[in-house]
Design goal:
Elements: H1 17-31, H2 47-57, E1 69-74, H3 77-98, H4 101-107, H5 118-121, E2 125-130, E3 133-134, E4 142-143, H6 147-165
Antiparallel strand pairs: 1-2, 3-4
Helix pairs in contact: 2-6
The structure holds flavin mononucleotide.
Amino acid sequence: MQQHDCSPLNDYIEYSESEMLARSEKFYQDIKRRHSIRSFSNRTVDKTIIENCLKAAGTAPSGANHQPWHFVAVSSPEIKKQIREQAEHHERGFYDGRAGEEWLEALKELGTDANKPYLEHAPWLIAIFSQKKGGINEADKNTNYYVHESVGIATGFLINALHNAGSRLP
Ligand SMILES: Cc1cc2nc3c(=O)[nH]c(=O)nc-3n(C[C@H](O)[C@H](O)[C@H](O)COP(=O)(O)O)c2cc1C
């Protein structure tokens, strides 16, 4: 089956230049409010919101359209606890030697360390996996291309989608 046809895309939209200016400004004003957060409330977030953001991530471009990513959304307190324990174990190795002095120096002003309590506080954790082998169909075992780039772009889409969804009012 052909994957793509060449007819004009039916979701293509054209704008006036003034609309484009307004849209680009509005997007910039919103995206510049995105920040890396290392402290989360435990307010619940509806699963459908997370699913919509994952669907948005899945629209990202990828090498040969193989979509070499796998997103796992976790809300179970037990699994979040296990992830926190494993992450903190891994991070202790990083901060206690693996990182090296130069990297630790670069991280100093961020004030990060091996403690990750937010991995249990946040209502959802999203684990992102890269797939070196796969293809367009789930059972495929073909080589995937530009895996890191593709997964990085999809992760960027996900961050953008989550930021756009916003935070829940108390
Ligand atoms: C590839 C990558 C790896 C990162 N690793 C970490 C990390 O291990 N721990 C952390 O707290 N932040 C991490 N960050 C977040 C950066 O520290 C953050 O993006 C940067 O300080 C700029 O701040 P901002 O995201 O609020 O603009 C990472 C960001 C990227 C893109």
